[in-house]
Hints:
CATH topology of chain B: ABC transporter involved in vitamin B12 uptake, BtuC
Structural class of chain B: mainly alpha
Largest sheet of chain B: 2 strands, antiparallel
CATH architecture of chain A: Orthogonal Bundle
Low-confidence stretches of chain A: none
Structural class of chain A: mainly alpha
Number of domains of chain B: 1
Low-confidence stretches of chain B: 1-9
Shape of chain B: globular
Distance between the termini of chain B: 13 Å
Number of domains of chain A: 1
Mean pLDDT of chain B: 85
Number of strands of chain B: 4
Strand content of chain B: under 5%
Shape of chain A: globular
Distance between the termini of chain A: 25 Å
Mean pLDDT of chain A: 89
Radius of gyration of chain B: 20 Å
Oligomer: heterodimer
Order of helices and strands of chain B: HHHHHHEHEEHHHHEHHH
Largest interface: A-B, 52 and 50 residues
Helix content of chain A: over 70%
Strand order of the largest sheet of chain B: 1-4
Order of helices and strands of chain A: HHHHHHEHEEHHHHEHHHH
Amino acid sequence: MNTRILDSAKAILSLQKAFLAIILVVLAMALFNLIPSTRTEFFSQLNLVDLLKSNSIFMILAMGETVVLIAGGVDLSIGGMMALSGVVVILLINAGVPIPVAIALCLLLGLAIGAINAFISVYQRAEPFIITLGMGIALTGIGQQLTNAYPVTSTNPDFQNIANLQVLGPIPILVVVMLVVLAGVHWTLRSTSFGRNVYAVGGDYEVAKYSGINVLRTKASTYLISSVTAALGGVMLASQLNSASSIAGDNTALYVVVAVVVGGTSVAGGIGGAIKSATGLVLLGILTNAFNMLRIDSLVSYLPTALLGIIIVSILWLDSYGRKRRREAV
Amino acid sequence: MSAATQPLGGRVTTQTIINAIKNNPIVVAIALLVIVTSFVEPKFLTGDNFDNIVRQFGTLIFAALGMTFVIMAGFIDLSIGGIISLVAVVTVTLIDPIGQGPAILVGVAVGLGCGLLNGALILTSGALTQAEALFITYGMSLVYGAVALMYVQGVTQFLTYSKTDTSLFDAINSGGVGILSVSAIMFLISLAILYVIQRRTYIGRAVVLTGGNKIAARLAGIPISRSIVLIYAISGMLSAIGAVVLVSRVTLADPTMGTPYMTQAILAVVVGGTALIGGRGSVIWTVVGTLLLILLNNSLNLLGVSSYVQFMLRGVILILAIWLDTAKQASVGR
């Protein structure tokens, strides 16, 4: 009986560190609220809605990245893709292209870039980490060339409604889109044969191949998905801010991948899920928000970034260490 | 043993040179561009421009040399940007309190310390894949960068504001023996040491074997743990030396100045033909890669290509370098 409790406690600890960490952060904030001098607006509706809004774009990107990571790849071009897509959608709209057409063209652009990533890193078997890193740099460069590295602003006032129109009380469309993408990816991974194949390919490529799965096509599709979600994220970001910058995605890709990995999706492939990734992203978002609310940077400026880095390293260290223990146990 | 596994190894014959060209199409392409530029733009071959190229070479080459060892062992170090920033601000702020010589030594020690910390984290976590190292060192880059920002409160530190002697920095920047500048001498010494470690020592071979196949290396009794600590220590320390050279050149220390060096160092190593999956490569080729990258930037600048297109080309070259390398490996039947 005792060992069972111990085992299940161990299982919880090893599975969902990010989830536990979120609970700890929320509890800590609740405790801080009991003390008048450290009382914050963390639980106010305004802050919670803001937390949702400011993390929705990352969440959309993280969903695509999750699929790639589960299939055993990695896509670091999503930051560049997001920035370029935002720039392109605004340039198209300013050139008089109808908004739906402009958005469709951006998603097609995402598809095309995803196809290039997939061709080189899946069919040609080149190292996806560097291929997509290079693609991200190239896309950022294209965005800079298109805009002369200046931010561009939409001249069509309707465009910002795409993300900002409030549909459910204070909740804007952006959040709804994010939830739809989250649910869509969760459903695809859990309930479709494609989703099963993605796990199989990431888990053991050779076994998947000999089981008759079209491994190349499955893996290639994951790059298309992550590029399209990144393009969608770029459109939503441009709409949310009503402007776009070619360098908006500079640190996005690594942040998103790290968030996904912190959530428990394995970089080695085969393990993970939409909900896990969402947990990781929420953890990093909620931590940043809590640090802001507690005004930690007024104690020592830039301390929040250092703490975030330490927390990321700790969680990843624990993950690797867990794998090492399992390896040695076998 | 083919030229692919042993660049610049053994006797240099016509055949090895032809093989080297066949195996490094990117190198040939950039070399062609440089030759074309020198004909089209007479400014290219002037002493001023040469000086310019040598200066740009300074910081990047140290970071890239360190990165070569890390990548050869099948790992990666994304924290060098943070280390360069941290070492730069530590060094400059310490000049007044403890003097310039000790300040530089402490700076290099900080770099070495960061490298050892990276190595310890990777080692104790039991990380065996490049991906695991990638994320852990990325987290550490956030930490080092934030510590640099916290240390100087985000304020740029100017070398010229120092009240005490900063002649060492001037010497590193512009002094020298004959045609060799001090930073060039530092570079040659580092290169010689690294080359000897790579080619002539047991631990150097262990690093390359670690990159080949970690499980096999472990079973064969290769000291993987020592290799891991060594590569990250070397990477941290060389980044620190690069930071000192950078500070000497630009005469200031900014807490975010190291950021661009992370991608550029990887680019230089990869263009030099060190396989990203590890197990193959050479510090000599990294020197070639770094030089070509800088010559490329320089040529494009002189030809009047916009900096945004240059930025884009950097990505395209990265993709092409890896793609061609993969195709080559596939054709020799790895």
